[in-house]
Amino acid sequence: MLSLHQLTCFLATYEHGSLTAAAEELGYAQPSVSEQIRALEKSLGVQLFRRVGRGVVPTTVADTLRPHAERTLAAAEDTRRAAQQVARFETGTIRFGMFGIARLYAGAGLVADVLARHPGVRVELVGQNSAGVQEDLRRGRLEAAMIAIPQVHSEGMSVTPVAKDEIVYISSDPERLRSPVTARQLGNATLVMPDTTWRAEDSVRIAVRSWLHSSGLNPQTRIEVEDPEIAVELVGMGLADSVIPRGAAEQLLPRLAPNAGWVSFRPKIHDVFAIVHRAGATLSPAAQLMIEIATRRIQAVAQPV
Amino acid sequence: MLSLHQLTCFLATYEHGSLTAAAEELGYAQPSVSEQIRALEKSLGVQLFRRVGRGVVPTTVADTLRPHAERTLAAAEDTRRAAQQVARFETGTIRFGMFGIARLYAGAGLVADVLARHPGVRVELVGQNSAGVQEDLRRGRLEAAMIAIPQVHSEGMSVTPVAKDEIVYISSDPERLRSPVTARQLGNATLVMPDTTWRAEDSVRIAVRSWLHSSGLNPQTRIEVEDPEIAVELVGMGLADSVIPRGAAEQLLPRLAPNAGWVSFRPKIHDVFAIVHRAGATLSPAAQLMIEIATRRIQAVAQPV
DNA sequence: GGACAACATAGGTATCTCCTAGGGAAGCCG
DNA sequence: CGGCTTCCCTAGGAGATACCTATGTTGTCC
User: Fold this and answer.
1) Which strand D bases fall within 7 angstroms of a protein CB?
2) Which CATH topology does B93-159+273-304 take?
3) Which range among A174-183, B86-95, B271-280 shows the weakest confidence by mean pLDDT?
């Protein structure tokens, strides 16, 4: 069986023209190198050195094989170097899951932070929907993710809340922003809600629904859209009001609905963001890095817990 | 310590997405592959697979490393293939020593024969002078050679005569070719002799000198040249006679001195060609090939012994 | 001819590699 | 929901390997 060690011994011997010198360079005893060369010759079925009295002389076969051996060792060294570079975040890919409103107002900053600290890496911020992220985590395709809590099927998952964001009512009618919104008021409101496709798993909707249920009321959603941006624009046009996390409101309102504002619920409702990964897993340095940066980013726009 | 075996296990596992499947493909038990992967991860300092419940999932590090591992294994396979091609004479270099008049009239044919049988090989037919050939043999730089015998310092050398060639007298004076030349006649002749530089070791000269010494005479050499061709041309011009092996005479006279001819000595003198290599050495297939072809070639122009 | 230098050989030990056997977790299915 | 299967891990042991030191052999140099 051909081995890198044999090739190393071969090259050292070839270059020094001596087993003893090669052994000295490699830090072995002379018989060890001798044995490796013999094993290599047997493995390849060719004679590499003529044992001539005192000393060894490379055969023409050795001349022919030398560049191949060098290329092989160089490729191995290259493999090792690539691994080290990845370990140091000088290159490689960092994959992280992030779903929902969190990605909307922390995603770009998160990617920017990672690229600023590690310019050589590729970043993959995945997560089309909550179920997909959870499936990826469960199957091991994702190591860690940040998601809003209510939707977590947490068997075997480690869930660490890192921030909570108040859920607020937004409207372009100043009248409705005068005082905190009650369940009754919300029940009577005309609403536009985003994330239609994932409405059943959307943490904001789940939080609001359970909040309303305790008052015996049902939410009334008049308009369903996918993008939070569109929902906010519709609020700006006065066609409906909406319910979104406060961080999103503060980011989107000035840009998309300057005449609108937000107001708390009474009692207040919160959305909680958490880091999720498989329970019992040892997190890789890359995952730890992403968790650290994502946490810092989300805590810049939501309250730390 | 990184090893090719570890890389093989890594690639098999990566491609199958399973340690068990990889082990089956490689013909090992599953724990063996598992151990190799673990050793590779430790050696590189990175995690290559996430152990997730049943099954393993490659990390992004594994994605990054895979092409490097493939290149390394390909280079190793390339090394092995090169060795096999050399062993089958499909490529590589064949080096052989040949000195003196033998090369002159068997060298080109020898090279042609080798190239005809093994079109891919490089051929080196070395031997500027007898002493150099012997030194190369002794030092191991040459594995085997064909040389004329008298000059062999045979300690530690295996000498196998394969052909003998009569040494003849050449002249453009028909009078001198009438009957075999005696020692007295040779002592009175005006001679041109080739191989000036190596005159002390030239087998023809040694043979002739000892032949003359038994008659108490000394050779008279009027002209010294390097090339046998020039000596023969001078003979053709009638400026001197010469003494060369019959094989050389038959090849050179028609071309360079059509009006000249040759005649034996009385008693006859012979030059013996032998295969020489280090005693006790096991000959490589390449050397055996060259010996076989060179012997056949030389026996085509000289008498086999 | 004696001293030295370089490789081969021998023998012992530690490590590595591979196996079999058995345990535990996750997924599949009745 | 409980049993079965699948897949990986761990443990322990046998055989091979790699390395060492000590010694023998041979060629070289003085």
Assistant:
1) 6-12, 18-22, 26-28
2) D-Maltodextrin-Binding Protein; domain 2 (3.40.190)
3) B271-280
A181 pairs with which residues across the strands?
A265
Residue A214 or residue B272, greater confidence: B272
Q: CB-side exposure of A46: number of CA atoms within 13 Å?
A: 26
Q: For the structural domain made of A4-87, what CATH number should be given? A: 1.10.10.10
Residues B94-133 as b/e (b if ≥16 CB within 10 A, e otherwise) read bbbbbbbbbbbbbbebbbebbeeebeebebebbbebbebb
Is the distance from CB of B197 to CB of B129 less than 8 angstroms?
yes
Q: Which long-range contacts (CB under 8 A, 24 or more apart) does B30-36 make?
A: B33/B9, B36/B5, B36/B6, B36/B9, B36/B10
Low-confidence ranges of chain A (pLDDT < 70): 150-154
Residue B295, pLDDT above cutoff 70: yes
Beta strand A191-193 with A144-148 is unpaired
Strands of A180-299, DSSP E: 191-193, 221-224, 242-245, 261-263, 269-278
State the average pLDDT over residues B199-228: 83
User: What's the mean per-residue pLDDT of chain B?
Assistant: 90
Domain residue extents for chain B: 4-87, 93-159+273-304, 163-270
pTM for this model (two decimals): 0.86
- Whether the per-residue pLDDT at B3 is higher than 60: the answer is yes
Nearest CA in chain B to A278: B52
Centre a 10 Å sphere on the Cβ of residue B169 and count the other Cβ atoms it contains: 25
- Please tell me the distance in Å from A12's CA to the nearest CA on chain B: 17
| Per-residue pLDDT, B151 | 56
Rounded to whole angstroms, the Cα distance separating B61 from A123 reads 13
B101 touches chain A (CB under 8 A): no
3-state DSSP assignment of residue A203? helix
**CA–CA separation, B141 and B146 (whole Å):** 15
What is the residue type of A180? P
- pLDDT score of B292 more than 90: yes
Task: Give the C-alpha separation, B158 to B146, whole Å.
Answer: 11
Of residues B251 and B280, the one with the higher pLDDT is B251
| DSSP secondary structure letter of residue A16 | H
Same fold, A4-87 and A163-270: no
Q: Is B86 on the interface with A (CB under 8 A)?
A: yes
Domain A163-270 sits in CATH at: 3.40.190.10
C-alpha B123, offset from chain centre? 7
Mean pLDDT on B116-145: 87
User: Is the CB of A35 less than 7 A from some atom of nucleic acid strand D?
Assistant: yes
More confident residue, A209 or B10: B10
CA proximity to B145, closest of B294, B305, B250: B294
Closest-CA distance, B180 to chain A, in angstroms, reads 47
CA–CA dist B45, B39 (Å, integer)? 10
Q: Is it the case that residue B152 has pLDDT exceeding 70?
A: no
Provide the residue count of chain B.
305
CA distance A247 to A164: 10
Count of beta carbons in the 10 Å neighbourhood of residue A254 = 10
Judge contact between B124 and B154, C-beta under 8 A: no
Task: Tell me which range, A216-220, B30-34, B224-228, is most confidently predicted by mean pLDDT.
Answer: B30-34
The superfamily in CATH containing domain A93-162+273-304 is Periplasmic binding protein-like II (3.40.190.10)
Of B20, B16, B19, B4, the closest CA to residue B69 belongs to B4
